[in-house]
């Protein structure tokens, strides 16, 4: 399956470099380029890519606001120069599926796109520890299944546990012996019931209660 990607960055040279890197992968197709957040949202709604590779600092509409606007449209992988907590936490609260720094090498960038496209979350290693600590303080406390205020079904509780272990949709489907399409439906329901916007938030929510 070809992964369709939209690249959003206000620097033409950066966009060209990212497109060149992604273009070298047989399973990735860059379907468009956007020079600002407003254009990124419009193009994503029109083209429906699998993933938007989004910069944070952009004119007209910043990357975090654009990510929030694209909730339910496609996955967003933030790619930025700035390892700043405000950006990391803001992006993930907005529903980004991952956060990566621009100093990553080409091979890691390509693999990051594949990881997010598989339905997994991805965070730059250097920010993971403080991210978990911060979200653990802010997300609702996880309850035991019998008193779960979100009303998760037993199957949804199993899916949440799998997300907490970092399993992809395909891996959850194999472990729980169900179709991958059914898995995606359960994941969406878990996020909706918990009031979360991404698998990353769900994993932190689960780990905070274990």
UniProtKB/TrEMBL annotation:
It holds the Pfam family GerE. Keywords: DNA-binding, Phosphoprotein, Transcription, Transcription regulation. It comes from the Bacteria. Residues 145-210 form the HTH luxR-type domain. InterPro entries: CheY-like_superfamily, NreC/VraR/RcsB-like_REC, Sig_transdc_resp-reg_C-effctor, Sig_transdc_resp-reg_receiver, Tscrpt_reg_LuxR_C, WalR-like. GO terms for biological process: phosphorelay signal transduction system; regulation of DNA-templated transcription. The modification 4-aspartylphosphate is found at residue 55. The keyword Cell division does not apply. Signal peptide: none annotated. GO terms for molecular function: DNA binding. CDD domains: LuxR_C_like (cd06170), REC_NarL-like (cd17535). Residues 4-117 form the Response regulatory domain. This is LuxR family two component transcriptional regulator. It comes from Nonomuraea fuscirosea.
């Amino acid at each position: 399956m070809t992964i369709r990607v939209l690249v959003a960055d206000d620097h033409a040279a950066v966009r060209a470099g990212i497109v060149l890197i992604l273009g070298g992968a047989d399973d990735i197709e860059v379907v468009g380029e956007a020079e600002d957040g407003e254009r990124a949202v419009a193009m994503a709604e029109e083209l429906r890519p699998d993933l938007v590779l989004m910069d944070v600092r952009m004119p007209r509409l910043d990357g975090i606001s654009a990510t929030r606007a694209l909730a339910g449209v496609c996955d967003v992988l933030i790619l930025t120069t700035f390892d700043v907590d405000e950006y990391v936490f803001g992006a993930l609260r907005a529903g980004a599926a991952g956060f990566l720094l621009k100093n990553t090498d080409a091979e890691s960038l390509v693999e990051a796109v594949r990881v997010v496209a598989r339905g997994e979350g991805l965070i730059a290693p250097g920010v993971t520890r403080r991210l978990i600590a911060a979200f653990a303080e802010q997300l609702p406390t996880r309850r035991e299944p019998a008193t779960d205020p979100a009303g998760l079904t037993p199957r949804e509780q199993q899916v949440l546990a799998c997300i907490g272990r970092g399993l992809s949709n395909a891996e959850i489907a194999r472990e729980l012996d169900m179709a991958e399409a059914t898995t995606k439906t359960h994941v969406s329901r878990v996020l909706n019931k918990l009031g979360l916007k991404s698998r990353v938030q769900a994993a932190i929510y689960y780990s905070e209660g274990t």
